[in-house]
Amino acid sequence: MTSVHEDRPVPPTRQDDVAAAGSELIGGPVGRWARLGSSPLTPVRVVALVMIGMFALGMVQKLPCYNWAWFQGASSQYTHACYSDIPHLFVGRGFSEGLLPYFDRLSGDMDFLEYPVFTGLFMEVASWFTPSGGTIQYREQIYWLVNCGMLMVCAVVIAVCVARTHRRRPWDGLLVALAPAFALTATINWDLFAIALTAAGMLMWSRGRSLMFGILIGLATAAKLYPVLLLGPLLVLCLRAGKWREFGAALLGTAGSWLLVNLPVMLAAPEGWKKFYSFSQEREVDFGSFWLIITQSTGVSLRHEQVNTYAIVLMVLACAGIAWLTFTAPRRPRFAQLAFLVVAAFILTNKVYSPQYVLWLIPLAALALPRWRHFLVWQACEVMYFLGIWMYLAYTTSGDKHQGLPTDGYHLAILLHLVGTLYLCAVIVRDILLPDRDTVRRDGSDDPSGGVLDRAPDVFALGRAAAPSRGEAQLVQGPRVQWGMRQGGATAAD
Known about the structure:
Elements: H1 17-22, H2 43-61, H3 63-67, H4 74-79, H5 85-92, H6 117-128, H7 136-165, H8 173-177, H9 180-185, H10 191-206, H11 210-223, H12 231-241, H13 244-268, H14 270-273, H15 275-282, H16 290-298, H17 304-328, H18 335-349, H19 358-368, H20 372-397, H21 407-433, E1 460-462, E2 481-483
Parallel strand pairs: 1-2
Helix pairs in contact: 2-7, 5-7, 6-11, 7-10, 10-11, 10-19, 11-13, 12-13, 12-17, 12-18, 16-21, 17-18, 18-19, 18-21, 20-21
């Protein structure tokens, strides 16, 4: 059974003090007698328009580089904080010469394109719309603009999918659209393509379309590795809810679509295909990770084999902790909450943190913790890191001038990123342990992004589940197996 108010959107100004204060810029919080839905500017349309505007502002922020800094030495693009991989890799990965990714060998240190196959296709398609004549600077500018147009479509897809995933909370999409770190990092690399597929997959799961979710996650994994991590939270949630058939469909769809994209290149150009995976394994400790702080502060050199092992162990321990949290929580956690925690654990333990990796977490954060105060605290930390890495690179490339941020200052920027992400993780864990504090569940909702998991009874849990919160009196209960000490010391099955 569903709530009688399920078809009515939740105005964020009635639940969030920061949203209410911010709404004063456009006339104040929504009134008690407001006719919601009567305007042609629906929440989803507003979110899409805001995303387009913010994406455009992010492009404007890159203008110094677009006009001259990309082409006049490394230091300038760092001091203006407008660096992007896109124009540099147009030449550096052979797209300017018409080379075919994975099949044609590159000159220089990189023998093949070091990106997953679906991202390589995205890059190649953009090159088709880039003129073959004119100066190389002009062609790099056009290639960046073409990619920006394609990435803007991805950005709008992400914001709209987030707005539609929680049916009653479309305004949560504004967290994505207005995120400052989103605008600043959207055009650094091609991550938005994989994120758009992941956001669309989560929308499909929220609608109960398990196979389509898997297909989209498989395609996203063919563009970037991290989306496959979402299968872990889904596994433990489906175990607690007994939804094996749905998880099987998701797993089948993921494997099938990933193979569909990768298998042709894997068979026809195996050496080029495996470059992404070998590059990821052999990459040394790099920018943004706590491993870099350790190596630079102590002078201890860590081989990439050591860091790979340590990172895997830490990631396994984090995932084990998340699984334990899932089974022992008084109520089954929401899918978005666990998805954020798992991806955040991967980012925190990884040996590199590029500034655009924050994009992976922004849609998940909007779904997991739609609270402006927490979200903006985290975003402030990420913006400081965004500025910190470019100022550090400016310092290391400016020669004797030493313009920018020295090593100790950069370490502080890394710590801000780490602390900000851990802060958001801690608040999400608190909401899982104290479900009445969860903003999404305040109106009696269970898991709006959970699809078949939404309002499904538990069949397996460790410990004692909480009683249904207010608004859930009509929730259908089923058999539940619980292991642990109940009141009186007995272990029993409900």
